[in-house]
Amino acid sequence: MRTFVTHRLTVLVAALAVACAVGSSSAREFSISHRGIRATWASLEFRAEFGTIRCPVTIEGSFHANGFGKTVGNLIGAVFGANVQQEACVGGRVSAFNGTEPYNGGTAPQTLPGHYTFFAYSGTLPNVTAVYLELSRNRWGVRDSGGFCTGQYGTAEDRLRLGFNREAGGRITSVETVAASNRLTLFRRDGGFLCPPRGEVLGTGQVAAQGTTTRIALTLI
To answer: 52, 70, 115, 125: which has the highest count of C-beta atoms within 10 A?
Structure first.
């Protein structure tokens, strides 16, 4: 999942620190134009010691309301769908644990729904440049092409942080993983002889309202 653009971590941490400080002193909230959301990656990467696996991935979810506050850890939505186009994977196979996709000679179990929680934003009000959400309860099956590992990645403690980049008019232009906050932990080895304890998810994707190509907009209220 190396397509995800790597952030300049020092700049990002500083921006998030400023954003959280500003957010805590403001009563303003975010309003979202569409509650149903679909994020797509043409080539999401899973990188570990055995190499890199690249696959087209789609994640679908919904927000619980038409707006949400800027409190860190605030539960604001659910992820109810995840799909991997396994036939288009390169370097191995990745399975979404959605109860239907093939994995390890059988069918991947169901671990959805997952949860979206608010983490932070970057920029200075009202000029917000990105909103950061954390995705929890995401489990993936991984099999590398070399036969080193068939394993499940993603534990209850893991949080995959996603940055939703926002243009001046409010529309979300892309979604990307956040460097140093994109790791998944090995839950269980199901085959092979060596599964690394952690892997990284990397990539930049597109966001639209569910079932359409309409861009989602985030505005301040």
So the answer is: 70
